[in-house]
Amino acid sequence: MQLTADRNDEVTLVTACDLIRRAHALGAEYIQTPECTTMMEPDKKLTLEKALPESEHPSVKAFSALAAELGIWLHIGSLIVGTEETRAANRALLFSPKGEIAARYDKIHMFDVVIPDGQSYRESATFKPGEKAVVAKLPWGELGMGICYDVRFPYLFRAQAKKGAMILTAPAAFTKFTGEAHWHTLLKARAIENGCFVIAAGQCGVHAEGRETYGHSLIIAPWGEILADGGDQPGIVVADIDLDRVKQAREMVPSIHHDREFSLS
After folding, report:
1. How far apart are the first and last CA of the chain?
2. Contacts of 178 by beta carbon, 8 Å cutoff, 6+ apart
3. The domain spanning residue 43 has which CATH number?
4. Which of 30, 73, 150, 185 has a Cα at 20 to 30 A from 135?
C-alpha cells in the first residue's frame, strides 16, 4: 500500500488502518506499509519531541491490534520511535497474526545527501543508524528487511539472500527526484541479482513543507518482472506471490552460489 503521510501520527494512522483493511478485503495475507508510515515531520526538533518509545507508541498498539483482528502478517515499513539516545530510531516492525512483534529492524544506512533539486537531507542528525541486518520468518519463506536508502547497498540484500531470504523488502519515502531516476532500476537489480521477490511500499505525493515522495510501490518477481506498480497516488498494490519462482530463477542463473572472496590492490 502507499499513502501520503501527514506530519502528525494520529492523522495518518486513520488512513493507514483503512488502507490495511482494504488490502485485507482483497485477500492479502501479508501487508506492507511505507517508511515513516504515520508521520513525515520535516523539523528535527519536532520529530524528536513526537518520537514516543515503542512501548508507548499509539501506532504500535493500533497496528498490533489490527494485525490480530484481521489475522494477517503486517509489516510496518517504519515508525519513528523514541529511544534513550539523543536520536530516534527509524524502525520497521513485523506483526504476526496474533498481534505480536515477530521482528524489528532499525534502518542501517542514513540518507545524508544534497540532491540537485536543492533539497538537503541529513537523517543521521535525527536517527541513530541500526547495526543489525534482519531476516524474519514468515509461513511461506524468509523475509529480508530493509528501508529506503538501504536499497543502494547491495551487500545488505545479498547477505540476507544468502541467509535464506526469498523476499527482500525496501519500504520507502523515496524523493521524487531520485525516484524518477533510480527507483525502478535499483529494485529490479536487487531482485535479479539475488533471485528474490522484492516488495517495496512507498510514500507518495506532497508532504509538509513541500517535500515530494515518488510513490510507485513495487512488487517484483525474481526474474525482474514488475508484477504491480502503485503509480503516484495513495492506494493498494496487490499481487500473487509464487515462491517456487525463486528456485526457478536461481536454477537458471545460480549467481547466488558463485560468490567468491577476492583481494583488492
Report:
1. 45
2. 115, 214
3. 3.60.110.10
4. 185
Residues contacting residue 113 through CB under 8 Å, at least 6 positions apart: 120, 121
pTM of the predicted structure, to 2 decimals = 0.97
What is the per-residue pLDDT across 65-84, written as a single tens digit (0 to 9) for each? 999 999 999 999 999 999 98
The set of catalytic residues is 35, 107, 148
Percent of the chain's residues with pLDDT above 70: 100
The Cα–Cα gap between 27 and 211 comes to: 33
Residues of the domain holding 196: 9-256
Looking at the 3D structure of the chain, how many domains does it have?
1
